[in-house]
Every structure is written in C-alpha cells, then in structure tokens.
Amino acid sequence: MSFDLTTRLSERRTAHLYRQRPHLQSPQAPLVRVDGQPLLAFCSNDYLGLANHPEVITAMQQGAAKWGVGGGASHLVIGHSSPHHELEEALAEFTGRPRALLFSTGYMANLATVTALVGRGDTVLEDRVNHASLLDAGLLSGARFSRYLHNDAASLANRLDKASGNCLVVTDGVFSMDGDLADLPALCAEAKKKDAWLLVDDAHGFGPLGATGGGIVEHFGLGLEDVQVLIGTLGKGFGTAGAFVAGSEELIETLIQFARPYIYTTSQPPAVACATLKSLELLRSEGWRREHLNKLIARFRQGAAEIGLSLMDSFTPIQPILIGDSARALQLSAMLRERGLLVTAIRPPTVPAGSARLRVTLSAAHSEAQLEQLLEALADCWPLLAVPESMEAVHA
Ligand SMILES: *Cc1c(COP(=O)(O)O)cnc(C)c1O
Questions:
Q1: Residues 124-143: tens digit of each pLDDT
Q2: Which of 77, 94, 141, 255 has its CA 20 to 30 A from that of 363?
Q3: Residue 389, pLDDT above cutoff 60
Q4: Same domain, yes or no, for 172 and 292?
C-alpha cells in the first residue's frame, strides 16, 4: 500500500482538469505581468480597483508603523487590537446590523458560523452551487445536510418541510461562478414560514451592489429580521483581506464563545484592518466606481451578444462565457492569452460537470478601451474555436 499520487495527478491532466497557478509579477491592476508576459487581465475579484489604491496602501503603511506587523495572538487572548475593534464597529454601522465580527478569511468565517449554529439533530439546507467553503461548513457541522435546486424557493420549501431541529438556510448572495443573484425575497419568505434562519454569504455583492455598496441586502432592502446571518469577505470588492459576520448581539457573542475557527487562530494583522477602514470609506463614498462598472457590464453584455457568446443571467461584474467542455474552455483561454489577454477557464469540480466557462470579471479599474480590446479578441477567437482543425492547431 502506498500513496499513488502519480496516477492521481496524471488522471487529472488527462481529464483537462489540471490546475496551474499563473505567477503574478505585478500588483493587482488591469495591466499585469504574469509568467514574464504583460497581459490585460479580466479575472480578478478586485471589482472596485481598491487592492492597489494609494490611499489604502498608505493606510496600511501607517497602520504597520503604529501597530506593528503581526496580530500576535487570538482575539480571545491578546490579539484583538483597536483597529480590529474600530473596523467591526464600522462594518456593523455599514451593514445596519447591531454587531459585526472580523475574521482572517471568508473560508474561516463560513466554517465558523455554520458549525457554531447547527450540529447533530439540526438541519442545514444549501443551494447546490454554493461556494465550496459553505458546502464544506455544512458537511463539517454534523447537521443533516441537503442541497436544494439552484435558487429555487419551491425546492427549498420542499426540503424545509422535512427539516428537523434548528434549520439554517445557506446561500451565496451573488453566486461566485455564475454572477446571478440569490432570490432572497423568495428564499426569506420560505425560511420564515418554518422559523428557519437565513445565512447569506455576499462575498461578491459588497462593493458592486447596492446604492452605497452594501451588497445584496441593500439591493433588496433586507434587514436583520430577513437575513439573520450576513457574511462579507474583504478580499474582493474591499480590495484587502479577511471577512466579517454581521448580525445580532447574541449571534456575535455566540460565535465568540463557540466558533472554533474563530477562537483557535491568530487575529489578522492590525494594519490590514487599518487598510480596510480606508477601503470601506472609499467603497461607500465613491459611487462613480459602481457607475463606471455598471457601464462596462452593460457594454460587455451587448458586445458579447453581438459575437454570439452564451452569457449567464447576470448583471454583476461576474460575466461568465459558458463553454461546456473543459478542453475547449482551456483553448479559448489560451487563444486569448496569445492575444495578450488573461481570462481564466473555470472547470469542474469548481463548477458542475459539463459547464466549464471563461469567468470574465470586470473592474471599475478597467477603461472602456480595455473592454473593447477584450471584445475584439473574443470576436476574433470565438469563430476559430468552433472549428475542430484549429482546436488541434492550438494543441500542437
Ligand atoms: C471567495 C469566497 C469565499 C472565501 O473568502 P476568502 O476570504 O477568499 O477565504 C467565501 N465565499 C464566497 C462566496 C466566495 O466567493
């Protein structure tokens, strides 16, 4: 008996599912350097262009000068410093919730929250295309775990009828690989009928969505009585790192007492919290970033439709081009790269089998001219992709 990793790896390669990490040699921006090549990128989640913003950088530098570099300990020991506390208060005010709790990553926030709220004898119901961290959290919780059909309130209702114990309904706000919005009003209504709680992970909604960037709950006008558990991540629209859970006083105290991924880890560097305080200010006040982004989204959808690409039902900065076959998705990505454009192919198991895609993401940092460059390249490449001979040429 031994670990046959060679076979496992070669099978993955044969299935066109092998992953490679593009080596980024410049900061996040539309124009990047990757593996020695200058490229125009459309695959970052830095939707508002804050990851490399001078004022956010300065806030982090000043934060490090004042607070040092490391968090030093867990929040419960001696790692909860003034910038963490101030950021939690600002995030509570921003989300209109009584309190917020800061985490080092979204993955951990999701594991912590779901496992602290439900366990054996309870039920957790998840959208079948939820982010991996939410699905993992549901499985880890030990609660009865069931997935309902994507964004389907009737399918949720059906599962709610069979639920036992405390029941937590879990959904992405903006679905990370499709870009569509959870039908929160309908999901809320079903959850309320059964006294279930609704947890919304709006990693991709905070920043781009809502009048002041407050995400899907601001978009739909939903309060604490509708969405009891609201999660946001800080590494996407906010441009920094970490995550937060917002909700009632009791929810936050429960997490501090019982959420193991919160308790047994070092706090994030305080300087990161200083940077996020600045990016939160820019995210809320600079509405022009959302306006520009919405213009780019509308233009992309119009241009893509003219080329005949199959887009998904999304008005968010996530604009996937559906391909289906993993090998063809990789080929289109490679053809774009030859033309100086970086758009990553997303393949199973990140997305369901047979739904490989190019996940185009737009940012307020993109110019209209850069978007036209993408559309021109897609117009060139798309017809070539359909022809089998040229696919072989790309392989050779
Ligand atoms: C990216 C993402 C996460 C993970 O957040 P990190 O801070 O990157 O760990 C969680 N949920 C969703 C929906 C995400 O897209």
A1: 999 999 999 999 999 999 99
A2: 94
A3: no
A4: no
Q: Which of 201, 359, 361 to mutate to test the pocket of ligand 1 (most atoms within 8 A of CB)?
A: 201
Task: Please determine, for residue 395, whether its predicted confidence score (pLDDT) is greater than 80.
Answer: no
pLDDT band (50, 70, 90) for residue 386: low
**CATH code (residue 318):** 3.90.1150.10
State the total domains in the chain: 2
Q: Would the CA dihedral through 259, 260, 261, 264 be positive or negative?
A: positive
Taking the centre of ligand 1 as the mean of its atom positions, its distance from the CA of residue 384, in whole angstroms, is 35
What are the phi and psi torsion angles at 243 (to 5°)? -160, 170
215, 293: one domain: no
- State yes or no: pLDDT of 161 exceeds 60: yes
What angle separates helix 106-117 from helix 249-258, to the nearest 10 degrees?
A: 100
Nearest Cα to 239, choosing from 306, 189, 297, 286? Answer: 286
372 and 259 share one domain? no
Q: Which of 12-26, 89-103, 116-130 has the lowest mean pLDDT?
A: 12-26
83-87 long-range contacts, Cβ below 8 Å, gap at least 24?
Answer: 83/270, 83/271, 83/273, 83/274, 83/277, 84/267, 84/268, 84/270, 84/273, 86/273, 86/277, 87/273, 87/276, 87/277, 87/280
Scanning 51-182, the segments in alpha helix (DSSP H) are: 54-67, 82-95, 106-117, 132-141, 153-161
Q: 221 and 238: one domain?
A: yes
What's the 18 CA to ligand 1 centre distance in angstroms?
A: 22
Helix, strand, coil % over all residues of the chain, rounded to 5: 45, 20, 35
Assess whether the previous peptide bond of 349 is cis (omega < 30° from 0).
yes
DSSP label at 41? E
One domain for residues 317 and 355: yes
Among residues 258, 285, 312, which one ends one of the domains? 285
Residue 2 maps to a domain: no
Question: Does 292 share its domain with 273?
Answer: no
**pLDDT tens per residue across span 200-237:** 999 999 999 999 999 999 999 999 999 999 999 999 99
Residue 89 domain-assigned?
yes
Range of the domain at 278: 54-285
Residues with a catalytic annotation lie at 176, 204, 236
- Integer Cα distance of 338 and 394 in angstroms: 10
Q: Give the ligand 1 atom nearest the CA of 236.
A: 1
Residue 297 has pLDDT above 70, yes or no: yes
Of 285, 304, 324, the last residue of a domain is 285
